[in-house]
């Protein structure tokens, strides 16, 4: 049940931006390095933030709170309405894992960049590792190790 009228809900939703600052940083960086991509492509499980068809790579840029980044200080549960938030955030993690499993079965290289990885201290290393992981996923490259980006959500009891 919604606490807002239809007009109030429409106004609230109109103020929500479709992409985050983190997504914009990664997209701008990739474009500046010559990568061309599709964004928020509905054809793929989870509607990925970035799809690089040439490299068979999909990138999700996840907020540490909403996707419960395992071990991150941003992955906290609010102290009010705890059962609602635990259920909501658990379902986000379950859905994320299911989408990643589907994409992996379709032979996509899935990279998850967490919001905290784009802090001023870590951004350069994160973006450089991203390029390496995309290039290593390219067909014909022999050194295709697992990428450096974890896809793990927090564990809920």
Summarize the structure.
The chain is of the alpha+beta class and 157 residues long.
Can you tell me about this structure?
The model is unreliable at 142-146 (pLDDT under 50). The chain has helices at residues 6-14, 21-32, 82-105, 123-136; strands spanning 38-39, 50-52, 57-62, 109-114. With 157 residues, it is α+β, with helices and mostly antiparallel strands. The chain is 38% helix and 11% strand.
CATH topology: Endonuclease, Chain A
Cα separation of the termini: 27 Å
CATH-assigned homologous superfamily:
VSR Endonuclease
Largest sheet: 4 strands, mixed
User: Widest sheet: strand order?
Assistant: 1-2-3-4
Shape summary: globular
Strand content: 5-15%
**Averaged pLDDT, please?**
87
- Gross CATH architecture: 3-Layer(aba) Sandwich
Decide which structural class fits the backbone.
alpha+beta
Q: Approximately how much helix is present in the residues?
A: 25-40%
Query: Tell me, what is the CATH class?
Result: Alpha Beta
Radius of gyration: 17 Å
Number of helices: 4
Kindly give the count of domains.
Answer: 1
* String of helices and strands: HHEEEHEH
Q: How many strands in all?
A: 4
Top keywords for this entry?
single chain; 157 residues; alpha+beta; Endonuclease, Chain A
Which helices and strands appear, and what pairs or packs with what?
Elements: H1 6-14, H2 21-32, E1 38-39, E2 50-52, E3 57-62, H3 82-105, E4 109-114, H4 123-136
Parallel strand pairs: 3-4
Antiparallel strand pairs: 1-2, 2-3
């Amino acid at each position: 049940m919604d606490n807002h009228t239809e007009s109030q809900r429409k106004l609230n939703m109109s103020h929500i931006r479709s992409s985050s600052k983190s997504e914009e940083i990664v997209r701008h960086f990739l474009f500046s390095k010559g990568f061309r991509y599709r964004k928020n492509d509905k054809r793929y499980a989870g509607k990925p933030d970035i799809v690089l068809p040439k490299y068979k790579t999909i990138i999700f840029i996840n907020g540490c709170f909403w996707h419960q980044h395992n071990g991150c200080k941003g992955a906290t549960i609010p102290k009010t309405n705890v059962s609602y938030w635990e259920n909501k955030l658990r379902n986000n993690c379950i859905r994320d894992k299911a989408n990643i499993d589907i994409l992996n079965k379709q032979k996509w290289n899935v990279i998850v960049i967490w919001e905290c990885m784009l802090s001023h201290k870590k951004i350069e290393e994160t973006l450089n590792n991203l390029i390496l992981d995309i290039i290593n996923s390219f067909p014909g490259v022999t050194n295709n190790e697992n990428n450096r980006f974890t896809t793990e959500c927090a564990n809920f009891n």
